[in-house]
Amino acid sequence: MYKLDNLKKSIRKGQVYRREDLAKSSKSIDRDLAILVQEGSLKKLAQGLYYAPKKTVFGDSVPEEKDVIKKYLKGDDFLITSPNYYNSIGLGTTQLYNSKSIYNHKKHEDVKLGNKVYQFRRKSKFPKQLSSEYLVIDLLNNLKSLEEDEQTLLHNLKSRVQQFNKELLKKNADRYGSIKAKKIINELV
User: Fold this and answer.
1) Taking Cα atoms as reference points, which of 135, 140, 164, 166 lies closest to residue 153?
2) Going along the chain, which residue ranges are E strands?
3) Would you place residue 27 in the very low, low, confident or very high pLDDT band (cuts 50, 70, 90)?
């Protein structure tokens, strides 16, 4: 139990851990992790991925989504996006989707982390932060996979293109857009 106490001391509430991070503090890491999960000191998110829950008046808190993804990818070079974000740019999208895409340079798979499924998509380029102009380009890139009517969205974009920074739209289209997205933006700008 002394070794388990050493492992417990290295765990901070609210933090996300990989098995390999905790292995430095234990000689029987798998057994110790099973004990800590059973007693509730750790919660398992996925194979080899754990977090130490913070206790709140509402129960155990879950870690920040960015922290979980950062630990899963072993880095912070990613962008979290969702078709739900398109609703914020005012082009008439109203559907609510139960999916999030993680653009990154490493993985291309659907992964369940905790109780959420994330679509990891390998992209050669993506911005560090979301902007309205990037969301327009991302919407055009994913137009076929949306539930909304394609023609209505394109009509709304044509009538509302003035609300966006045209220079940034063109720059984002050139950097991140598909051939179709580039063509549509070039016609509008």
Assistant:
1) 140
2) 16-18, 43-46, 49-51, 54-56, 59-61, 78-81, 100-104, 109-113, 116-122
3) confident
Contact yes or no for 69/80 (Cβ under 8 A): yes
Note the pLDDT tens digit of each residue in 98-131: 899 999 999 999 999 999 999 999 999 999 999 9
Domain regions of the chain by residue span: 2-63, 74-98+124-188
Q: Looking at the domain 2-63, which fold is it?
A: Arc Repressor Mutant, subunit A (1.10.10)
| For range 85-107, the mean pLDDT | 92
| 103 in Cβ contact with 126 (< 8 Å) | yes
Helices and strands: H and E segment counts in the chain: 8, 9
**Full-model pTM:** 0.87
Q: Which residue has the tokens 């909304």?
A: 148
| Helix, strand, coil percentages for the chain (3-state, nearest 5) | 50, 20, 35
